[in-house]
## 1
Amino acid sequence: MKRYLAVCMILLLALMPGVLSAQNSDIRVHDPVMIKQKDTYYLFCTGRGISVFSSTDMKDWKEEAPVFENSPEWTEEVVPGFRGHIWAPDIHWYDGKYYLYYSVSAFAKNTSAIGLATNVTLDPESADFEWEDQGIVIRSVPNRDLWNAIDPNIITDESGYPWMSFGSFWEGLKMVRLTPNRTTIAEPQEWHTIARRKRTYFTEDAQPGDAALEAPFIFKKDTMYYLFVSWDYCCRGEKSTYKVMVGKSKSVTGPYLDRDGISMNAGGGTLVIEGNKNWAGVGHNSAYTFEGKDYLIFHAYDASDQGRPKLKIAEVQWDDEGWPILREEVLK
């Protein structure tokens, strides 16, 4: 475990961008999400203070200032000694503001919380540009919770209600209904488990265990909801085994079934993409429609560059049964 934590620390510290502008395969990111404002795409990802990039074509990227120069004050209470390395953000637009959810956690523990920051613009040159932290939305505590409050994603259901999916390891990925203003859990509380894998029975509650899945992202296509998740292990460079799996449902809360009709709550999942000898650990994806085309955004570990995590963007098409397939080979 100590060796695993050390490897994770080294890799995560290496995520800070080292160039001002780069093509997709050269930009170093982890857990990327994207949004478009006017003619500019903005990419948010794991990094000190939350890393940010901008681009007008999704190919050439410019490094921007991080979201936080200093960590929000509450992070020290959740994770004593927290050094500002914030994980796995999610970004979306609602009611005249950009909502940026993000994860604060200790390594290999569910000493974690999901926070929220808002901004009226993403353009750093605008006089109105200012990130305002809204504090904790949800928090997990070791030996109290068998879930982990990291990797948030927001989806709005057919009735207009917002839901947050999240989670990593433990007893699976969760979903909880939020208040309409998206800042707190709605009352009465409504929770669902949307995906899980088998966890060794005698694993201590405080340990993540071996049910390796995380990073839920729900994408709506026509009348169906698609739950993308990452199976297996990230953060091990060339030895990472991450892969993207998917299930679909007519309801936002599931059940999400794979191509064989197996529920993702019972370990089901249909493979979307996995690594190869050149690119390991393909995962932690997000999915969007831009200019009438659907895209999968994710990271992969570059075997030709000491296993550093790099940005990958692939256009998505859909087969006759409504399953996502990638249009082109992106792991050459």
## 2
Amino acid sequence: MGSAAPRRSAPGWRALLAAAAENPLTHAKLSGLYPATGRLDSWTADTIRPFVDDAVELFGAARLMYGGDWPVSVLAGGYDRVWDALSTVVAGLAPAGRDAILGGTATAFYRLPIGRSRAG
């Protein structure tokens, strides 16, 4: 018994994502990966995994960033659930890729200062 083939996202969505990823200046947020119909909170980490896997394959971690999707994430089960699920999905990436998606890409893209507090 061989392992099952990896699940893939919807072909149309993947094609559009691939077209966007062709431009090396294009970055993307991993956000809003909830069902388009039915209950917004009916998703799991496994249902978003094919979309994240495709995005990582097409863009690379250096052009992807976590997006909290507030306030819609509240309707989709809450911010903590969104963060936990995406963290679970990217946990298998190399540390540099995981760190890029969960903060590094956004820091670089938005040119955020590192290690400085606004209060201090």
